[in-house]
Structures are given as structure tokens and as C-alpha cells.
UniProtKB/TrEMBL annotation:
Source taxonomy: Bacteria, Pseudomonadati, Bacteroidota, Cytophagia, Cytophagales
InterPro entries: Redoxin, Thioredoxin-like_sf, Thioredoxin_domain, Thioredoxin_ResA/DsbE_sf, TPR-like_helical_dom_sf
Record-linked SUPFAM superfamilies: Thioredoxin-like
Protein name from the UniProt record: Thiol-disulfide isomerase or thioredoxin
UniProtKB keywords: Isomerase
Chain ranges of the Thioredoxin domain: 504-650
Record keyword RNA-binding present: no
Gene3D superfamilies: Glutaredoxin (3.40.30.10), Tetratricopeptide repeat domain (1.25.40.10)
GO biological process: response to stress
Keyword tRNA-binding: no
Naturally occurring in which organism (per UniProt): Spirosoma fluviale
GO molecular function: isomerase activity; oxidoreductase activity
């Protein structure tokens, strides 16, 4: 083929070798047009200059491609056009029929918006095996009635690379040099399309990072804006984003200020107003500013988030009647049902504003039934909606329960409780469900769930106590039988826990110590020979230490009548006057023995890395258990520590 033959069809940066009426292409960069040596083309299509409304037949020959050894092939293609119709670039599969060494297929070109089609080929059984034509894909351009390539046929290819995920889904990455070449060629052929592509070309040059690209891109921005007597707000926004990508934030800020002048009630102005509302510290002025914003910009994209913020504001300012009035006026699109759920549950748990809490949760339930699918298309909205419904009904049940309507609460809890999901059910929910069952004579229905929770280790101490007390009241039963009943329920669980704890037991020497406690008494390890000693290292400034104290109090109470178990709460790393420890203990109802380890000698001897640290010394005078931190679960803390003590008492 002669050079003039290429120049006659240079509208696209690929070369066609004529074969009858078919166009056969082997993409190359423009600078290679005059020097390339060609072998048999691997992709041909017919008609050679396809137009809209036509069916295009194509032939793909994989012999010289990565798919040369594959026999089960399919095509994936996108239609493309101007940047504003990038939604055309939705990947679609096209079937291929094998004919000897070739694969053939057909594509239809719609009559609207399409400037071309881009294809890749892959193994239909192993989609990661692809031929992406060196990242440039295979192109079928659309021509007009005169056989000329239509506008956007080249720039549209670049848009597929820079504005869609077609290449990414097949494991490819756009070549920024090729993208720049496509954009530049489109604008060279169709300069009137500059408003469509100017920013995309400059953004591609930023990604290309060719030496000296910064001044080139800035010059391109200024040149384009200068060519527009009155740049639109969108153009100013795009220019500002380009400056930001170059790190020139002063110019970006200046353009955004200019945009506000062009569009005084536009997105940027609304953003500033919404930010002013968010940062307004005075609650009354915040409410007034929000009302003004809602009146002036009823369709603002910032309004839903502002509405959620105001909902939270009413709650934090303890204006619960105002909150009810506010949320009942909001459209469903501005209502965060999960936030309303959280607010209503907290009010119910605190026995505060219960009638208002009921109105809030009812509003949330009503809104949920009307809300459309969430924005995440990948999510299963119906399943998510059911989950939210259960959360809301749990709160509604809690509100009714706290108001003394146990029948209504029990009915609501029944819509929440699933006996098959005991492992994932929040233990307090099971407890509340059973307590309502006790109040409404439905123990027969609720008992299996309660027993399953105990057996699975998902029962609170309150639930176990309620179940035990109920059992003891039954005809012919006694407290001793009730204790045995509960012990039997937990037998398998405790056996499993003991097996797990057995693996955690250690065996180290227990250093001797002598300390003075808060009452001035001498506390010596030698006085506890043959006993199990629980050491809890703590300080008044340690949040997790203090948080664990209720659980530690329960554990100590469990063994309070056992002379062979001793709990010592060793204050260490206090870093302040001893009076601070005295003050803390005088304000809290803990009957702890508190030895003072002011020099941290005992803590260091027992390898305390951080606090709280619990250390258990066995009757043999050796350290058998050590744990650091607090899980936040008092029930598991009490159970684990109690099991360790019992195992050591048994000589394990």
C-alpha cells in the first residue's frame, strides 16, 4: 500500500488494508503510518465504511494474538459517541462462530448517538485470557453518507479509555500516550468539538506526565477560557479541578470564586451556605439558617445531609418535642431511618420522653416502607430493607416495653427474634424478649430461645437469672434444682470453654511480693499459699481498667464465700498522689482490696506490659494465666476468669 492510500483514510489512527469491501485494521500510532510493515490483518469488517442502521459483519483471526491457542472465544464490545453519551459504553457480549482459523460475528449500529464500536476478544470459559490489541482494542468507526468518518469517532475512543471501565474490567490499563494521541487527532480533524474535549485532553496530559506538561496544561486552560467570552459554571469548575490536579490551588480557588459570580445561587454558593449552617454554634441561629436554606434551595443536593445534621441537632439539644415536629415534616428522601432508630432506642433505654420516642420510631417505620432502592445498585435492597425493619421493630418493642405495654412489646419482639440465628442475636435482645414473655405468660414460646442462648454462650446474666428464677418457681422445683438446671444447660459450653482455656494456661514462677494497701495493711503473697490469687493491675486514669471493674466485682462476688480464692486490685503506674486512689475508691461501691505498687516493682516482676492486666496464680504458687486489656463484654470476662479459677482449684 502506498503512502497516499493511508492519507486518504487517516481520520482514525489506524491503517486499513483493503480486502474486497472489508476494512481490515492493525492499529498503530500516526508517526508509524509511513514506516510500518504489515502482515495479514487479524480483524476485518464489512461494509468497509459502515453507517448507522447497518449490520456490520466482522472476522477475527487470532493466530498472531494471545488467544492463538484458544478455541472457545467470544467478543465484548461497547458503542461510543460524544462524551455526554458515555452511558453507551456498557459492555455487551457478542457471539462468535468459528470458521476454520477465523471467528466471525455481527454487530448492529443504532441510528442515534453512535460514532463507533470498540471490541476485545477473550476466552469465554476463562475470561481473564484476553486480546486487548495492546490496550488499544479493535475499532469499527461509523461513517456518514459520503463515507467520511463521523465526528467523535476518534475522541470517543479516548472517552471509553478515560471515562469508562471497559478496559479495566478485562485487566487492562489505558495508555496515557495513546489517549492523548486520540484526543489530539479528534481536535485536529474537528476543531469545532473543542468544547467537548478540551478538558479531557488536558486531564490526559496530566496523567501522561510528559516533561514540561505543567506549563503546557496551564496554557491550555488559559487558552480555552480566553476563547470563551462567558465561560459557563461547569467550565470554570472543570478548569479549577485541572489546576488542583497540578497543585495550583490559588488559581483553582480564584476560579471557584469566579464561578460564584457567574452562578450566585449555584452549587458552590450552596456549598458555602451549607458549611456556614454546619459550623454555626448557636442552635437558634442554626435552625433559622437551615429554614432559610430549605426555602431558597428546596432541591439542593446539600439539603438531605443538612436535614440529617439538624435531626441530630434537635436530639443533642434535648429538644425532643421539636425533633418530633421536625422529622414528621421531612420527605422520605431526607430521612435517615437508622438515625431515628438510634435516637428512639436511646430515649427508650433511658426511659426518657417515651411518647415522643414512640412517635419517632413509628415515623421511621413508615418512612422505610416508602423508601426506594438504596443508591448502591449492587446491594440486595429487599434483604437490606428486611434487616432495617427488624432493627426498627426491635426499638419499637423496647419503647412499648418501657411504657409497660408488655403484650405489644412481646408481639413486636416476635417479629425480630429468629430462633435459627441465636449466634448472631444481641444477648440483651434475647433477655428483653424473655422478660416480656414472663410478663405475658408466653414462657412456653420463649423458653427454647432462652435455653438456646444459654447453651450458645449468648445469654446475659439477667437472662440466666430470670430463667433460673422462673424454673425454681415451677411446681415441684427448688432453688437447688434450678441451679442444676442452669448448670446442665451450660455444661457443653463450659466444657468447650475449658478446653480452649486449657490451651491458654501458662506455667511461670510467681515472684513473691509484699505491699501496703489503702487501709495501711500489709499484703504479702506468702499469706496466700495454697490459694488461687487473682491480681488485677490498674490505675485511676486507665479507662479500660475502670470499665472492667463491674465485671471484676461480679467475679469476686462469685467467689466471696470461697476461702481459697483471693482477689487483689493492685494499683500501679498511677503517676500521681495516693490520695487520688483513695478518692476514687471512696466514690465507687467496690469492696476491693487495693495494694499500692507505687514503684511498679510488682507490675514489672509480673511482666505487665500494659493495663489492665489480669494475672491468676494457682495454688502451687505459679502464674498460670495472664491477659491484657478489656474486651468490653462483662459477661465473657466474668465467665472466662471464673473458669480459670475453677480449673486451677481442681488442679488443672
Amino acid at each position: 500500500m502506498k503512502t497516499k492510500d493511508f492519507l486518504s483514510f487517516i481520520d482514525l489512527s489506524f491503517v486499513r488494508i483493503k480486502r474486497g469491501t472489508a476494512g481490515c485494521i492493525a492499529p498503530v500510532f500516526l508517526i508509524l503510518l509511513f514506516t510500518a510493515t504489515y502482515v495479514q490483518a487479524q480483524f476485518c469488517f464489512s461494509p468497509e465504511r459502515p453507517q448507522v442502521g447497518q449490520v456490520v459483519s466482522f472476522t477475527y483471526t487470532p493466530q498472531t494474538t494471545p488467544l492463538a491457542a484458544d478455541s472457545t472465544l467470544e467478543g465484548r464490545y461497547v458503542r461510543y459517541g460524544a462524551p455526554n453519551v458515555i452511558q453507551l459504553s456498557q459492555p455487551t457480549t457478542v457471539k462468535l462462530v468459528r470458521q476454520g482459523n477465523d471467528f466471525v460475528g455481527e454487530l448492529f449500529i443504532p441510528r442515534k448517538d453512535v460514532a463507533g464500536m470498540m471490541l476485545l476478544f477473550r476466552n469465554s470459559l476463562q475470561p481473564k485470557r484476553t486480546d486487548l490489541n495492546n490496550g488499544q482494542l479493535y475499532v469499527i468507526p461509523v461513517c456518514d453518507a459520503n463515507g467520511r468518518i463521523v465526528p467523535h469517532a476518534t475522541g470517543g475512543q479516548a472517552s471509553v479509555f478515560s471515562r469508562s471501565h471497559f478496559l479495566y474490567e478485562s485487566g487492562g490499563r489505558p495508555d496515557p500516550n495513546w489517549v492523548v494521541t486520540l484526543y489530539a487527532h479528534e481536535l485536529a480533524q474537528n476543531p469545532e468539538l473543542r468544547p467537548y474535549y478540551w478538558s479531557d485532553l488536558l486531564a490526559a496530559q496530566v496523567k501522561q506526565k510528559k516533561p514540561g506538561y505543567g506549563p503546557v496544561v496551564k496554557a491550555g486552560i488559559e487558552s480555552y477560557l480566553a476563547s470563551r467570552p462567558t465561560p459557563t459554571a461547569a467550565e470554570l469548575t472543570t478548569a479549577a479541578q485541572l489546576y488542583e490536579s497540578l497543585g495550583d490551588f490559588p488559581k483553582a480557588t480564584a476560579l471557584r470564586e469566579r464561578q460564584k459570580l457567574v452562578e450566585p445561587t449555584g452549587s458552590l454558593a450552596q456549598k458555602d451556605r451549607s458549611m456556614a449552617i454546619r459550623t454555626e454554634p448557636n442552635w437558634e441561629r442554626k435552625k433559622a439558617a437551615y429554614q432559610a436554606f430549605m426555602t431558597e434551595f428546596p432541591n439542593s443536593s446539600y439539603l438531605p445531609a443538612l436535614t440529617v445534621m439538624m435531626t441530630d441537632g434537635y436530639f443533642k439539644n434535648n429538644d425532643i418535642p421539636g425533633l418530633v415536629t421536625f422529622v414528621e415534616k421531612q420527605p422520605t428522601s431526607h430521612t435517615d431511618v437508622l438515625m431515628l432508630n438510634t435516637i428512639a432506642f436511646q430515649l427508650a433505654d433511658e426511659r426518657r420522653s417515651l411518647p415522643e420516642a414512640e412517635k419517632i420510631i413509628k415515623r421511621a417505620i413508615d418512612v422505610l416502607t416508602l423508601q426506594p432502592r438504596s443508591g448502591n445498585k449492587a446491594s440486595n435492597w429487599e434483604a437490606e430493607k428486611q434487616t432495617r425493619q427488624r432493627q426498627l421493630m426491635n426499638t419499637y418493642a423496647r419503647v412499648r416495653e418501657q411504657q409497660g405495654d408488655y403484650a405489644g412489646a412481646y408481639a413486636a419482639y416476635q417479629t425480630v427474634i429468629d430462633p435459627n440465628e441465636i449466634e448472631s442475636t444481641e444477648p440483651r435482645l434475647t433477655e428483653r424478649y424473655f422478660l416480656c414473655a414472663l410478663q405475658t405468660n408466653h414462657v412456653a414460646e420463649a423458653r427454647p430461645m432462652a435455653e438456646a442462648a444459654v447453651q450458645a454462650g449468648k445469654a446475659t446474666s439477667g437472662l440466666k437469672r430470670a430463667l433460673r428464677d422462673w424454673y425454681a418457681r415451677q411446681p415441684g422445683n427448688t432453688p437447688a434444682k434450678a441451679d442444676a438446671y442452669l448448670t446442665q444447660l451450660e455444661a457443653d459450653l463450659r466444657a468447650d470453654q475449658r478446653d480452649e482455656l486449657q490451651q491458654l494456661l501458662i506455667n511461670e514462677p510467681a515472684p513473691a511480693f509484699t505491699l501496703t494497701d489503702l487501709l495501711g495493711r500489709t499484703i504479702s503473697s506468702s499469706a496466700f499459699k495454697g490459694k488461687v490469687i487473682v491480681l488485677d493491675f490498674w490505675a485511676t486514669w486507665c479507662g479500660p481498667c475502670i470499665a472492667s471493674f463491674p465485671a471484676m466485682q461480679q467475679a469476686q462476688t462469685r467467689f466471696q464465700n470461697d476461702p481459697n480464692v483471693k482477689f487483689l486490685f493492685v494499683n500501679t503506674r498511677e503517676g500521681g498522689p495516693v490520695q487520688r486512689v483513695h478518692n476514687f475508691m471512696s466514690k465507687h461501691p467496690y469492696n476491693f482490696v487495693v495494694p499500692l505498687d507505687g514503684q511498679q516493682k510488682v507490675a514489672n516482676a509480673y511482666k505487665v506490659q500494659g493495663i489492665p492486666t489480669k494475672v491468676v496464680i494457682g495454688p502451687d504458687g505459679r502464674v498460670r494465666y495472664r491477659t491484657i486489656g478489656y474486651s468490653g463484654n462483662p459477661e465473657s470476662t466474668v465467665n472466662e476468669l471464673s473458669l480459670v479459677v475453677e480449673m486451677l482449684k481442681e488442679g488443672k
